[in-house]
Amino acid sequence: MEVPLGLGIASAAFILSAAIVSIAYLTFLCWCTLPCCRSRPPPTDEERGPANSGAANVPDPAATAELPKAAVRRYAWPEVESLTGNFTATVIGEGGFSTVYLARLPGADSSLAAVKVLRSGQRVHRAFLQELDVLRHLSHPRIVRLLGFCDDREEGVLVLEYVPNGSLHEKLHGGDALPWARRMWIAYEVAGAVEYLHEGCGELPIVHGDITAANVLLDDRLDPKLCDFGSAQAGFSSAVRSAGPVVGSPGYADPHYIRTGMVSKSTDVYGFGVLLLELITGLPAVGSEEGRVLTAEMRPRLREAGRSEWEVVDPRMGGEYDAAEAAAMASIAARCIGVQPSLRPSMAAIRQIMGEKMSSSLSAVDGGSDGKAE
User: Which candidate in 45, 133, 210, 254 is catalytic?
Assistant: First the structure.
């Protein structure tokens, strides 16, 4: 019997449709049952979109114990008590959420360490986990090294490399004037550390979030080491809304962040610009006089810095500085603290300019490192 043409075509279409549905169903079953079919890389910031991009999820420290950081030790709480003499050891630092004790580590070398004990509290503990996760992924000669941690209790503990000469803030504003060449070296090396965070420390860029003179420590050679990653966040696109702790200290906080809550690499660039102003002028970011802010005071003078750098350079220098370097440094600072984040230079560009314009001072300082990652 002859099958009508229309019926034959309809039958063929039905068979083809059934075959497609069967293949799709089998594929779905494979995806549901085979782990290799389910796995895929986590979405990038571009895939999430600006509204959903932001800090990477902080893994449990116990789950990251096998990361290639064998020197990082996990301490039990009784060991922390022993290290700090039951918290009676010398206090070498104190903030709103932590106390830092000087401790001597057990072992053949009995080296000194800084034991940072955070206050209890859910929000502080989240910040501790975030700081711990960031530090575990860093290895740079100008960043304070993580030696160990304790997460047995809500009071998180970080055991850090001890840096003996205090902070840059203390040295700039509480002691003898640092020589000009040393100031140039410190600025150049801190720029290298921040560039490493932004560009070279791993798959995700890291925004430090609190670049200040107090968060730059000086070792026995007066070489700088960047510390305090409590505000640091990883995994940023060019500009995202912060979901973490408040970013920035008084006098250093990026006005764009204050207005919008948006954090990016340019947030660190702004803080670095304020740090440059401190190194140039010898003045603190916020003065003892009510309402005095260094950036507001210096912006009009920076416009004229190329012709009258003597008006902005720390008078304690007694004229012992390179005028061309001072003008170049003031120009960099002016660009860093610009109102428009998109017009601020990158840390890589800043370091390149400093290397070119300040070669005289940089070559005069035997810092023992070119500031590159280990």
Answer: 210
